[in-house]
């Protein structure tokens, strides 16, 4: 069942019913100011950091669902309705929501009155613009009222929802004409505030929530809206809001447009004390400048055109055309769009992440690089250095850090032993894309302490050596607190029967080992060695290559279980992910990474592992993480068995690592199987089951309930997932086979045999490559010939030359 459709021409998903299974959201913003907005106008805004600089409130566990946002109420006689249906939930005569690239358009009609709201964050600005156009479709003059509404957050989102004894006495506002200023904390900090304004005279306003809603009122029917008259309330203490009242008169067929601006304003240090600072009156100079840039509909329209141009240019760097419409749609639009959102958000703020706890992930952000480095290489460079600056001197790292402060998140801590190797993975992707080795010479702090800085190359060396020097009883890498699977905590024990588990301290071990990290070490160790050789670090390269060879042998000796790769050994040297286990006999992660690393390729192990994945882990909705699920709680395994069978790490379908299997299939040349794995979780290919899947049909979710769950096929945790980067990497670099390498662009497709081929345009280091792939014999993999600008080229890599700006490439498979 569908609740909308794709509009590829406009790069939009059009939602035709407000009653989607879950709120279907979009992200507004591309730099510092962001808004989350659902298909019914729910959501919130923040500046840079969703925890520390939250502009508006959102209640994740609220009932009814998604009932706080940026709303516009229309009071037409006795009828009250909203363009996006919520929160009044008045049935509309017509409704649509168009989620586009950085903007959303809501159109509602009731009793021949049409309201169209376009919401977006302009490029280079710190505000959300809401352009509201009202049209009288009837033959009579219509007189009605419009009430806007936002509820301000008191900046620190965690403190805002917990520290009531203080916060119920701190709310402060100022009102100047049609601009409402939320200045709570300005008395204390004197440098930032929020403004909510409209570009027209207003009939009234409200800034106090209780006054607007009424005692025990609800935002579905605020007292002010029901009565049709604002109270001109001024919040003092208690909960500040922003609401404007517009009285509108429309002749038959007439349209009027209003521009609302919700902005964040930060005065420079030298200006923050300007004005009557002694009594907390704000300096409005910057706000006036901001509002003046959007004080007409024409200015708002121009800003929207600029935003669309920004996205069109960004998405033009990699485009394809094939006989598969859904493939083209995902590669050209939605894959890359989601990759950019994960660049901006990491895992910090979605409808499943509150924006409070996680911040930016070390592992997460390194993986996200794989999906967006070709789009914004300069910002990717900056992100890599930001990540590295949170690393510790021994090569380990904070697992997460706050985006505003760039400080490690001590609440989450460290000890995830896969983290260091992801820095090598992200750096290799950056250098392959850009050819920029100068990043290796950048002086980079440890633990965000500038006094402790070395070259970035030294950070990579310590990352590699951290794994190399932390090996367990089988000479496999120690898992630490966990590896990629945060819930597989194998250094756990119970002091007494019935007691909860504790972790081993350093003096007691820990000895648990990870075959998955071993696969990472081999795969990304090869990149580390290649970078060392380029830098003239021959001795280090040889040391790395020797360690990699030894690790490959170790995996074959201690990590191969006969038909698949083991997952790990726990602290007591018990096998995890083995045919010897009662539950959890086979895990997806080592099968993907050990095959990607080509461990045991010549011995036939890679093919056997992929056959085992298909036999034991495959389902119609994707590949589950493990089988059989854990049917009881295992203290010695940590959190993984705390989930019911079929959910999350306990045999759920983790979309994030399905691409690992698809990539692994391309390693052994099985294009049909790689394609099957790709399409089973790809949003465009499963749009028809939206009533089962429930999350947005245009972006990936982190998890889908596995075959052992009652709700098999139901997705959760949409948008912010490493799935975005990995699926784009899979389809673009391994299925389509167009991937950057140190010496040039490689074209080595592994496609389903049904495809005749495809064409692609790929920008790479300032050169546009126009690629035609032909598959006359309908093979799955293999390059018979490559012609570059009319000349045959041996192999699959196009030697890079910056002299040409356009290169024509013809590849024939066979």
From TrEMBL:
Native source species: Roseburia intestinalis L1-82
Q: Where is coiled-coil annotated?
A: none
A single GO molecular-function term is: cellobiose phosphorylase activity
Q: Which SUPFAM superfamilies match?
A: Galactose mutarotase-like (SSF74650), Six-hairpin glycosidases (SSF48208)
Which Pfam families does the UniProt record give? GH94_b-supersand (PF06165), Glyco_hydro_94 (PF17167)
Q: Name one GO biological process term.
A: carbohydrate metabolic process
- Which UniProt keyword terms apply here? Glycosyltransferase, Transferase
User: Taking every annotated instance into account, which residue ranges of this chain make up the domain Glycosyl hydrolase 94 catalytic?
Assistant: 310-737
This entry's Enzyme Commission designation comes to 2.4.1.20
Q: What is this protein called?
A: Cellobiose phosphorylase
Matching entries from Gene3D superfamilies are given as: 1.50.10.10, Glycoside hydrolase, family 65, N-terminal domain, Maltose phosphorylase, domain 3, mpn423 like domain
Matching entries from SMART domains are given as: CBM_X
List, for all copies, the residue spans of the domain called Glycosyl hydrolase 94 supersandwich: 11-293
